Amino acid sequence: MQRKIRKIALTVVASLATATMSLAAVAPAQANDAGASPALSVTMERSDDLGDSVYIGDSIAYTITYTNNTSSPITAFPAAGNLTGLLTTESSNCRYANLAAGDTKTCTTARHLITQEDADAGSFTAHTAWKATLDRDGSQIVQDGITVDGEAIAIINESRPDPSFTPTEREDNEAVSLNHAGAYGYYCYRIPALTEAANGWIIAAYDGRPGSCRDSPNPNSIMVRISKDGGKSFEPQKEAIQGHTGTLEEQYGFSDPSLVTDEETGELFLFSTKSYERGLVNSDFGVDPNDRHVLQASVVSSKDNGATWSKPRIITSDITDDPTAWAARFATSGRGIQMKYGEYAGRLVQQYAFWNNGAMSAVSVYSDDHGTTWHAGKPVGTGMDENKVVELSDGTLMLNSRPSAGGKYRKIAYSHDGGQTYGEVTEDTNLPDPANNAGLIRAFPNAAEGSAAAKILLYSSASPEGRKNGLIRISFDDGKTWAKQQLFKSGAMSYSVLAPFDAKAGGGYGLFYEGSALDDMKFTKISLDWLGYLPVTASVDSEVTTGMNTVQVTVSNLGNRDYSNVGITPSVPQGWMAEKVTVSKLAAGESATVTAKVYVPDTAKVGDTAVASFAVNTDLEGIEGSGTLKVIAQESTDGNSGNSNTDSTQDTNSGGTNSNGTSQDTTTGNTAKKNSLSATAAGKNANPLAKTGTSVTTVLAIVMLASLCGAPLVIGQRVRRKK
């Protein structure tokens, strides 16, 4: 539903009364007296996107804006109202003390939860009353009797239908709400986490926050919803870890979930904080799991793909190397990783942030025994905050952190020992940060080490201007540069998390984020197609001899759309020649095997390795990658060799999908033989491919992507730009 925002007219009644006002005492709306100049102007807007009619359990959100019209600082003091998050009797409220002369500020905590009583009345109208004061306590009154009322909102006398229960085929970036403020007994929901279980179920986790929308030590619970059909529908939410409400001495809660999947064992891990009476700001030092003044580190696990969860295990002492200097360690929400390459393949890594001698640092927490034990690496940087880690194409870990202490850009550091230590922390000025938790993943987590596919990263966050306008960005070079950005959510948007999905989960990428009014938990799926790139790979597994070779090329469509006339355009070193081939049809998720001819000059020696570049494209120029062909034999002097063909070998300019993986020449109907040669009696200066009319280029492969919008991007050696 399209977001609707209503501007509510300011009504001001000037009064010199010093008595504290009640809502009943506010005079009716009327114009200012002639010549009167209000000290404080107040307006109010609805900031939710629930529409003209709402349901029982909906949370109506408001943004209140106030301006100091005087030449001295004043306090915007909320005197009365029927909204929560408004009055100073609550910890989160809309008082703004010491509002500078001429300055304008906003408050976004005011809201109302629609009740059965509201439904019986048929509508709800927000009422607020304000005064301008010299002090923060509201007693030294400069102006009184400022009232701002909202429009009446119609109420449907039932709970809002939950569309996430109904299996629905949705387009890329067509979001569905997994929960919203007020639903199912919780005041609000925040902090998204997302992963794919080993069996292909999609696991979404988030905070359920009772009583208020506060972080820890609010007695929050961790909720989980599961999709068993690739995100088309979700089962009702369950409490994976339950907090406990009560007095300050009785309460405890769990907040800020992050999910890690062990693909080797199938076990899921859910990290969170556990709090009693203290949170991030005022946690004591120490590692005693029963110390109610220490913010604890908790982990639970599931061995049945998220259906049930273990009891919380407190690992505070395990991951605190210096209890006298480290405090308030918390798992940074979203998702962790399992490493795939090199010495540390199989390692589970979850990022944390913590106070380190009074400064905020990051740290990698890791396990090499499938979650039996957890260890902390060395502290990373200062002025850090919620951070993510991604494994790059060579096995290096890149840490990407939200800045604290006033930073404006993401902070980056690299580890070459699986997260145990990191190098210098630098700012990535290509990634402005609006003080927000972001998502970061490798687009193809199972790509071959060092391949072009392994270098592709996806990043999600809000716009540089603040927590609004959610953006996805893509990198083709391990995060060295970032290509164009794509808007996925206009308006309010805060925390987000990305997760790559394999075929069992329907493919593409999951995106789980906080939408309007912070606590509307939105899930959607996107693809590289939606981002504007051609998600097609090509590969060749063939050794060559001098002379004419026929090699097999497998072209795979990893996207969600069908493509036609996909061209594989090679280029080779001087003296080598190869033909361009085309796949006439390439269905979503399918592969086609085609054959192509590669001519190797007789000047090549056994053991030579030729470096070549290639491009995959449709009707647009694509991005070139690189690869190699190795010479294993030379032709005999009469131009023939043991595995050579004759000139009767047909050209292959289109290929069909072959589900059993064999190479089918669709021009002739004959199966192409790997490494077959054409005994062409060509001279050194002749073109052995001239008879076929094909272009002089090479066929090799790794992963290639073509920009559907023609933006220049770099993979491998060269870039092609749309003409």
TrEMBL record:
<feature type="domain" description="DUF7507">
    <location>
        <begin position="38"/>
        <end position="133"/>
    </location>
</feature>
<dbReference type="GO" id="GO:0005737">
    <property type="term" value="C:cytoplasm"/>
</dbReference>
<dbReference type="InterPro" id="IPR013783">
    <property type="entry name" value="Ig-like_fold"/>
</dbReference>
<keyword id="KW-0378">Hydrolase</keyword>
<keyword id="KW-0472">Membrane</keyword>
<feature type="region of interest" description="Disordered">
    <location>
        <begin position="635"/>
        <end position="673"/>
    </location>
</feature>
<dbReference type="GO" id="GO:0004308">
    <property type="term" value="F:exo-alpha-sialidase activity"/>
</dbReference>
<feature type="signal peptide">
    <location>
        <begin position="1"/>
        <end position="24"/>
    </location>
</feature>
<feature type="compositionally biased region" description="Polar residues">
    <location>
        <begin position="635"/>
        <end position="647"/>
    </location>
</feature>
<keyword id="KW-0732">Signal</keyword>
<dbReference type="GO" id="GO:0009313">
    <property type="term" value="P:oligosaccharide catabolic process"/>
</dbReference>
<dbReference type="InterPro" id="IPR055354">
    <property type="entry name" value="DUF7507"/>
</dbReference>
<comment type="similarity">
    <text>Belongs to the glycosyl hydrolase 33 family.</text>
</comment>
<protein>
    <recommendedName>
        <fullName>exo-alpha-sialidase</fullName>
        <ecNumber>3.2.1.18</ecNumber>
    </recommendedName>
</protein>
<feature type="domain" description="Alpha-galactosidase NEW3">
    <location>
        <begin position="549"/>
        <end position="611"/>
    </location>
</feature>
<dbReference type="GO" id="GO:0006689">
    <property type="term" value="P:ganglioside catabolic process"/>
</dbReference>
<feature type="compositionally biased region" description="Low complexity">
    <location>
        <begin position="648"/>
        <end position="671"/>
    </location>
</feature>
<keyword id="KW-0812">Transmembrane</keyword>
<dbReference type="InterPro" id="IPR018905">
    <property type="entry name" value="A-galactase_NEW3"/>
</dbReference>
<feature type="domain" description="Sialidase">
    <location>
        <begin position="221"/>
        <end position="498"/>
    </location>
</feature>
<dbReference type="InterPro" id="IPR036278">
    <property type="entry name" value="Sialidase_sf"/>
</dbReference>
<dbReference type="GO" id="GO:0016020">
    <property type="term" value="C:membrane"/>
</dbReference>
<keyword id="KW-1133">Transmembrane helix</keyword>
<dbReference type="Pfam" id="PF13088">
    <property type="entry name" value="BNR_2"/>
</dbReference>
<keyword id="KW-0326">Glycosidase</keyword>
<dbReference type="Pfam" id="PF24346">
    <property type="entry name" value="DUF7507"/>
</dbReference>
<feature type="transmembrane region" description="Helical">
    <location>
        <begin position="696"/>
        <end position="715"/>
    </location>
</feature>
<dbReference type="InterPro" id="IPR011040">
    <property type="entry name" value="Sialidase"/>
</dbReference>
<dbReference type="Pfam" id="PF10633">
    <property type="entry name" value="NPCBM_assoc"/>
</dbReference>
<dbReference type="InterPro" id="IPR026856">
    <property type="entry name" value="Sialidase_fam"/>
</dbReference>
